User: Fold Cation-translocating P-type ATPase from Methylomarinum roseum.
Amino acid sequence: MNPPPALAEQPPKTQAWHRLSVEETLAQLDSSATGLSAQEAALRLTANGPNVLKEGKRISPLQIFLDQFKSLIIWILIVAGVVSGLLGEMMDAGAILAIVALNAVIGFYQEFNAEKSIAALKKMTAPQAKVWRDGKVMSIPASGIVTGDILALEAGDLIAADARLLEAASLRCIEATLTGESLAQTKHSETLEQIDVPLADRDNMVFMGTSVAAGTGLAVVVATAMQTELGRIAGLIAEAGEEEQTPLEKKLESFGQILVWTALGVVALLFGLGLLRGTELFELFMTSVSLAVAAVPEGLPAVVTVALSLGVVRMSRRHALMRKLSAVETLGSTSVICTDKTGTLTVGQMTVRALFVAGQRYQVSGEGYGPEGEVLIDGKQIDVEHEAPLLELATVILGCNNAHLSQEKGSWQVVGDPTEGALLVGGTKAGGDRERIEREMPKQHEIPFDSDRKLSTVVRKLPDGQCRAFINGAPDVLLQRCTKLYTSAGVRPLTDQDRQAIVAQNTAMAQQALRVLGSAYRDLDNDSSAELVADAVEQDLVFVGLSGMVDPPRQEAKDAVGKCRAAGIRVVMITGDHPHTATAIAREIGIATDDNTAVAGIELDKLSDEELQQRIAEIAVYARVTAEHKLRIIRAWKANDAVVAMTGDGVNDAPAIKGADIGIAMGKAGTEVTKQAADMIITDDNFASIVAAVEEGRGIYDNIRKTLQYLLAGNTGELLLMTVCVVVGLPTPLLPIHLLWINLVTDGLPALCLATDPIDPDVMQRQPRARSERITTANFLRTMGFTGLLTASVAFAVYFYILKTETTEIARTYAFAVLVFAELLRAFGARSETKPVWRISLFTNLNLVVVIAVSFGLQVLSQHNEMLGRFLKTSYLPFTDCLLLFALGAIPLFILELVKLVRRRWRQNDPPIRRNP
Assistant:
């Protein structure tokens, strides 16, 4: 059998294999139900390559290290350090270059393990697989599978390739990591006529990376390696992971460019003025270059790095692990959180929420597979031991159940079908005893669930020797086979009125997004064991009750969503689940209102990218979506200038997580693929931890911004003082060594202390920043300029006054001292742009108090120590004059605090209008 030309390459990923019949599929793949020969498989393996996912281009450690020097401001500092060294200021040059090196080392350490997503995907593929070769079943490495191979599937198998089912016997597959659907999907081999069938609804297909929960099947491989759905996701991750700067990196890059041109402009202006006034060329050169160095806040990279690093530590205490330093600030500027439903907003485990038996509706509390929970009526707990009907329903639920529960690392997990696991927990809460049932009612026979019957039956032998069939299944199908009804008074004939009441309960549960199963039983004759087939057993049944299940929302998710709304952050649900289920959960949590409807993936396919961008703000819930859809949604939000965070745990979330501004993976339930694609990992799988991380991120950005303003305002004051003196023809008020000392004493440790200031408690009451907003806003520049003008004015007044009666060296000493005092005192006011200094406790940042006190001491010492005075070229300054200069240096702080009070009054009288998130 020679391979057709089409097999020289993998089948196109758009091939609708679900629409082809079994015969057509085998014919197109040139295969048969008995599989390929070993020779044929070898030829196809050579032509198409091994069944493994390709890894993207690896980034070397050297490249990661070199990437730390991409920023323009880093190169400004390197040049500044070199110039300082050439000027003989080795201490300042060493400090600047050390800051650059520290920034590079920390950035390298954070990003060294950032590109492992595709490698993690490879771990999800099956190492071995059972295939038909040469007419018999054999186990081969999954990498050796080719198109046309026949897979033999059974419970527990990890599926090694995408395949079209040829046969399916009670086959159910768990596809949550690929589709987001939390329930095990029932599979069959019938042809699907529809063209646009969502991935989660292709019931005659199985996919690489998913697993078999129950049953058996045969399937012909239609795609391997990168042509599989999992391979397409791997490609999307690589595409989504293209290098893109974070908002903070973009803002600092933009600021750095402005800073360069400003510094060059100042140098050119002063150099030109100096030439006109006949200043000595060497002195003019030294002054101009020193001013250019002073214009660059060399402490900024250290401030940013320290602020982000400490933020990472604080976030880890709040269950958020950051994989990149820059992602900390990005999270703080997040305006949209796109979140998966299953396992993120919900527990990720099916849970029985409602029971109906003998005309009574019961509520069941608790989440997931844990035993904690009670049965309630109208919100009041009941004693299940005194509820005989409830026990009867529990016995049927547990009697027809093959699931088992195990506890691993404090977490309960189900072994077997998730639906049966949920029923097992629900039946136990309702008073059932699985061990007693197995001991006193041994299993005699089982008729497994299949998609045609929609029923599952287990026959057990009762203590009196009689056999009873316990049946669970779809309520509508089960009700058609029932002729009797179990009631609290006993069994009686089932009437039309009874049927209507049961149907009404089933409808009510379904409208609450509950998946409903019915339970019934039938007593069998002891001599009927030879006729234990479905058609014979599943007739003339006694209807017992209904069980309503759902993957419930996390208890804390609703509060977390409410906090997001208060902070102006839009929360959007993106899930592979059914639209009705997704909408119900979204409304319960607070993401959607009663007016919102879910947009399904099929409808999303009909929208162009431009149409989606226009409608994106109106849609709160997306359901039945694929990995490609999620990535489109992320990009549409980003096109609308939103800073987007994406949360999730499944493989199908990984491309969107990689493509978002901030990708967030769940630490417990998340796959390794998702974790490696993410910027942040939530260790407790708690949506509330994301909100806490957003708060930290906002606080960090505020600290960086106010520290930058503090640094630039000081530099502005120095530049204004120098420029005015040169323009009016006065001697230079500050020497290069003075400028370098000011930057070292006032811009170094005080700035680092500001960067580590505690977070403002009101930070989550503000609207998020726009992606396009500059770090240096108009208000930022006004405050910076006004502050610089105040400090320059005080220093100029002192310099001008002293220059009339004293030498230039003494005048420089006074101007130098008052400028240092003014900038140090101003650090206290820089802690908040809105709150006056007396409303912020000094004890919340004792480091700042200590650093400013030491800096004051060094400055005073420099005017009383002869050796330090010669180094700084300053003269002796009496202690009383120091106190006077200290008082004069407080004037800028006093005026700035008065301005805060005026602005605060204005805001109180005219509060801003909040936008609806």
